[in-house]
């Protein structure tokens, strides 16, 4: 279906006038923007507007979290089945049914139809306004589109515009029309040979599903010495080893210097963009591929937001723990999600948005902001994340290195995930876990798990870190038997005298 959103607006969203006033105006209708608007007006007669130039639901719903995990999950299920006696004898396929996987992915992205999201907003009392928005003064937003509008906010304007993928300005690279993350998650064709540029989360997950879905040759070019530089080394090494076992070629300490693609065509998102491309690398070699995927980072979507009209630096947005934009005049401007640079993860954007919405509501009602719920403290060393590679990595808080860089004296407790629950999960289960403990307080400041489907382990660690639970008390948090969570007991046992 078309990704053009104009026809999916609700009747309330299509009204236009020269000037409109709302209590809260949110620029960007992704998960963070939606939550900020909802929390700011919940249980009140306040009004809110969401301004969006693409699809209501944002990057996560259509081009990031949802489609990427939909691409990865079927092969994980197949892998578990083929290593389970009593089941593996009935699994005849070596690979997933690619058309069926893509069809399922498209169900999760609603075929890029955001009408259900608009209906949700309408039911929540939130107006959806289509168009590109920018600040034109304090509490004032102009929306460009078929029906230009000037909006005024009584209480707050919230920036929730997210980030956009960056493509390095290397000779020939941009002209080659490489895939970005949007193409990779919405792929319609599987390139036989693919070059992934980057070694972060997007690069690793993309390389994983390209190989799983049938790409014959996948090469990953990584500038640094390892994948996933921000996770514990043992976790990144496990992912690298698995990729290499499955014939993904990893080129560490290497960069692309130039690209040539004589037959380049803009064939659409997720389609192979023309003929073969040749990438020249810093080690003097070349790689010929059918498609390039650039996964070298993202930048805040602040261009053309009109930040200068309210006296702000046009290059970036910073916020305090109330999510109020710093450097501005007053407490009417907020920023949540990726755009503020604090934690580029959907769940953290939604968390910030809940805090932000509550702060807006409290200020509108002249209530004090003394309660901890009005401060976004989880952004400081308590951020959970799951990387859906094979094997999975889940982590929260510090790594051992980042804790030491922060000046903490830490002890690291490590254990293989070798418990009854893991063996029952699948016969070939392998995994490892580490807890980072602050010696001064004897509480956790970080945890990392790597293994099959370890995503569900991280919330326990998150609660322990946020709650500052002493290790002595964790002995009394008894893991159910037989579950993979029993690894917590094994980790604590490494500390016994």
Just give the CATH class of the largest domain. Answer: Alpha Beta
* Helix fraction by DSSP (H/I, runs of at least 4): 25-40%
Looking at CATH, the homologous superfamily of the largest domain is FAD/NAD(P)-binding domain
Task: State the separation between the terminal residues, measured CA to CA.
Answer: 63 Å
Residue stretches low in confidence (pLDDT < 50, at least 5 long) are 1-18
Shape: globular
- Could you describe the largest sheet, including whether it forms a barrel? 7 strands, mixed
Let me know the number of strands: 21
Number of helices: 15
The fold-level CATH name of the largest domain is FAD/NAD(P)-binding domain
Beta content: 15-25%
Query: Structural class given helices, strands, pairing?
Result: alpha/beta
Organism: Rhodococcus artemisiae
Pfam families: Pyr_redox_2 (PF07992), Pyr_redox_dim (PF02852)
Keywords: FAD, Flavoprotein, NAD, Oxidoreductase
InterPro entries: Class-I_Pyr_Nuc-Dis_Oxidored, FAD/NAD-bd_sf, FAD/NAD-binding_dom, FAD/NAD-linked_Rdtase_dimer_sf, Pyr_nuc-diS_OxRdtase, Pyr_nucl-diS_OxRdtase_dimer
